Amino acid sequence: MDLQTNRLSTIEDKPLWSVTAPERPAGTPLNTDLTCDIAIAGAGFTGLRAALALAEAGCKVAVFDLGDVGFGAAGRSGGQVNPMLPVARPGELLEAVGGTYFERMAEVSLGSADELFDLVRRYDIDCDARQHGWIRADHSPAACELARAAARDWNRFGAGFEFIDGDDVKRMTGSPRYSSATFSGKGGAVQPLALARGLAKAAEQAGAIIYAHSAVSDLKRVDQRWIMKAAGHQVKADKVLLATNGYTDELYTGLKNSVLPLTPVQIATGPLDEEEIGPILPDGQTISDTRRLIMYARREPNNRFVFGGIGFQKLLDRVGGHKWLLKDVARVFPSIRPGSWRFRWSGRIAITTDKVPHFHEPAPGILAGLGYNGRGVAMSLVMGRILAERALGADPHLLPFPVTPIRRMAFRDIQTIGAGAAMRFLRFRDNMEFG
C-alpha cells in the first residue's frame, strides 16, 4: 500500500457539507398517487430554483429526487460561485449560440453570481454566503498570456476582470506556485448543501412539495398530460421539468447521451491552526487555476480547507483521483499537513460539446436544462429560473438561452470508457507545464 492509499484509508468517505450544513429532516418518498400542475425531476439547484418560482406563481408543484435534497451535484460541488461560462472568449460563445442569444447569455452568465447572492439575501438562506472574489491563477506563462487576452475580451462586455502579479498573487493565494492571476470581484462561495436546503425550505413555504427517494421513471404522454412513476406510485402532470444535469438517466430518450459526465473529486480538512491555514487565501477569496485538470480550493470560516480537482469513474462505481489531490495539494499549498485531511467525496457534472448550458423543449410540456460545464452553482440557478419562466408561458424567443434540439454527443461512449486514460494524459501535460 503506497503512502497516498494509506492516507486515504483514514479519511471519511462523505462530503464535508453534510457535516456543516444546517439540519433538515430526512425527506420521505411519495406514498400515494398524485396529480399536479408541474412535476420536477431533480431536487438540486436547478429543480429547487424552478420549484420556488413556480410555487410562488401559484402552481401546484411536486419535486422528485432519487436521493434527498442536494443528493447530487448540489450537495457535492465545490460551492464556488464563478460568474462566467467556461468558454474561453466571447467569439466562442457567439459561435455556439449565434448573434441573437450572444449578448443575452453573456449578460446572465456574467451576472449569475450577483443573482445568486441576491437570492440568498432575499430568502435569508443560511449558507455561509460570501462574495469576496475569485482568483483564477495561471499555471504557466503561456496560460497567463491566453487568460489575459480572454479576460480583456470579456471586459468589453462588463466582466470587470483585474490582473494581479508577483508578490500580490503569493499573498492573496498563500501558494508559492503561482506568479500571475486574473481576479473577479463578483465571485464568491456558498456552503452548497446548505444553499440547496435553504432553497428547499423556501420552495416548501411557497407551496411546493418535495419527495425524496422517489426517482421518476416510465414517463409517457397520455391524453395531453404526462404520466410517470415515482416510488411505485403514479404521477400525472401537465408539464415536466428535467433538472438532473450530470445525474441524467434514460427518463427522456437521448438526453443522457447529449452530455458527457465528469467526476469532480474533493478533500477537506478538519479545523486547522493558524500555522497551517494562516497564509492560505487570507482575504476569503476562492481560487482555481488554468490547468486542463484544474484545481479549485477555498478556506472555510471555521478554518477548514477544501481542495478539489477532476477525477474519473472506475469499475464497480468506484472513483479515481483522490490520490492525485493529495499529491497536488502538497505542491500548491505546502503548509497543509498530510494528516489533516478528514473528508473525501465526489460528484458528477455534465459537459456539453460547445461548453454552454443547453435548454431543451423536445415535446409539448417537457422542458430540460443541463450542461453547466463546471459553473453549475451559479448557472443552475439561472437555468431554474428560466425553466420556470418558460413553464409559465414566457415566449421562448425572448429567453436568454436558445431552445435547441437534443443531440447525441459525438464519441460519448468512447470518451466515457476512456476517461481514466484521458485524465492521466492531461495530468501529464499539466505537470510538464506546471513543474
Q: In CATH, what is the class?
A: Alpha Beta
CATH topology category name: FAD/NAD(P)-binding domain
Domain count, please report it: 1
Into which percent range does the helicity of residues fall? 25-40%
Count, helices: 14
Q: How much is the average pLDDT?
A: 95
Radius of gyration: 21 Å
CATH superfamily: FAD/NAD(P)-binding domain
Rough shape? Answer: globular
Keyword list:
435 residues, eight-stranded mixed β-sheet, eleven-stranded mixed β-sheet, 14 helices, alpha/beta, FAD/NAD(P)-binding domain
Describe the secondary structure blueprint for this structure.
Elements: H1 3-8, E1 12-13, H2 17-20, E2 34-41, H3 45-56, E3 61-64, E4 80-81, H4 90-97, H5 99-110, H6 112-122, E5 134-137, H7 141-155, E6 161-165, H8 166-173, E7 180-184, E8 188-189, H9 192-206, E9 209-211, E10 216-222, E11 225-230, E12 233-242, E13 260-269, H10 274-277, E14 286-289, E15 296-299, E16 305-313, E17 319-320, H11 322-332, E18 341-346, E19 349-351, E20 358-363, E21 366-370, H12 376-391, H13 412-417, H14 419-434
Parallel strand pairs: 1-18, 2-3, 2-12, 3-9, 5-14, 12-21
Antiparallel strand pairs: 4-8, 5-7, 6-7, 10-11, 11-12, 13-16, 13-18, 13-19, 14-15, 15-16, 16-17, 20-21
